[in-house]
Specification:
The chain contains six helices and six strands. With about 160 residues, it is an alpha/beta fold. Strands 2-1-3-4-6-5 form a six-stranded mixed sheet, with helices on both faces.
Length: about 160
């Protein structure tokens, strides 16, 4: 009887896992990716069961950042049990995926924030109680067109003689 009780409690998801799984599921539902890569060394079998119901064509799960293939993914997720270097994140961003979610805990928070900001990531989730933080990058929304960033009005040759600095 004692074994069964301890086994049941180990099968229950923690609050942090529930938040993480719900957040990832919401990202997948919003972005509708066809192939996903999740970097983690955790047991994510419960998350995979949720993801399978969402119509994903391909799912790659593994712990090794250094051995990434050249395959492109619609969504790339790194969970907080792995540490991705700035170089690894740059490789993922530039070569493997245009949509990335990186989960971190609050260790080395200032340095992590600086690196993520420098790489163009935005903070999407902060949950200090469960020590969970998510940064995201989406190339589609990263650099939106600005109305002032066009040739009309300031880069036209007919205005060169009119305005001097």
């Amino acid at each position: 009887f004692i074994r069964k009780r301890s086994r049941k409690t180990s099968l229950k998801m923690t609050k942090k896992e529930k938040i993480l799984h719900s957040y990832i599921t919401n990202i997948i539902e919003d972005e509708n990716p066809k192939n996903i890569c999740i970097l983690t060394s955790q047991d994510v079998s419960k998350l995979i069961k949720r993801i399978e119901k969402l119509g994903i064509n391909g799912l790659s799960v593994g712990p090794d950042i250094e051995k990434l293939s050249d395959e492109n993914f619609d969504l790339f997720i790194i969970l907080n049990d792995l540490h991705a270097s700035e170089s690894n994140i740059g490789t993922i961003k530039n070569l493997l995926s245009h949509k990335i979610a990186i989960f971190t805990n609050f260790e080395d928070d200032q340095k992590t924030n600086e690196v993520m900001l420098k790489l163009g990531f935005q903070t999407e989730l902060i949950d200090k109680n469960n020590k969970l933080k998510c940064f995201s990058y989406n190339l589609k929304t990263y650099n939106n067109k600005r109305t002032w960033n066009n040739p009309k009005g300031w880069a036209n040759p007919e205005n060169f003689d009119k305005f001097r600095w």
